[in-house]
Amino acid sequence: MAAFYPRERIAVEGKHSEFRRNSDSGFPVLFHFCPVCGSSVCWEPQRKPDMIAVAVGAFADPDFPMPEQSVSDELRHSWIVFSDAMTTRTSG
Questions:
Q1: Residue 33's beta-bridge partner residues?
Q2: Residues ≥6 apart with Cβ < 8 Å to 32
């Protein structure tokens, strides 16, 4: 789960590792993660060049707002169920 922010509001600082891969839709994504534990910190999707996605788990906030949408639902496990308040879409 990610929270997207305008690129100019995010600064990636400190030691981190990077990994680039293509998303399911074919657009490259650059991931920044902790070189010690491997936790994802943020990622830069080429599909949204003006935005940076920050891993919601990095906030450690149990009151963080519920997601507004789900992506690539055709790939999710059948036991994951979403609220009717969230929109879903396929990756294509």
A1: 17, 40
A2: 12, 16, 17, 18, 40, 41, 42, 43, 44
pLDDT in tens, 27-42: 999 999 999 999 989 9
DSSP string for 31-70:
EEE-TTT--EEEEEETTSTTEEEEEGGGG--TTPPPPSEE
Distance CA 31, CA 45 (A): 9
Please state the domain extents for the chain: 2-65
Close Cβ partners of 64 (under 8 Å, ≥ 6 residues apart): 3, 56
Structure pTM?
Answer: 0.72
Separation of alpha carbons 47 and 65, rounded Å: 24
Query: Using the 8-state DSSP alphabet, how is residue 71 labeled?
Result: E
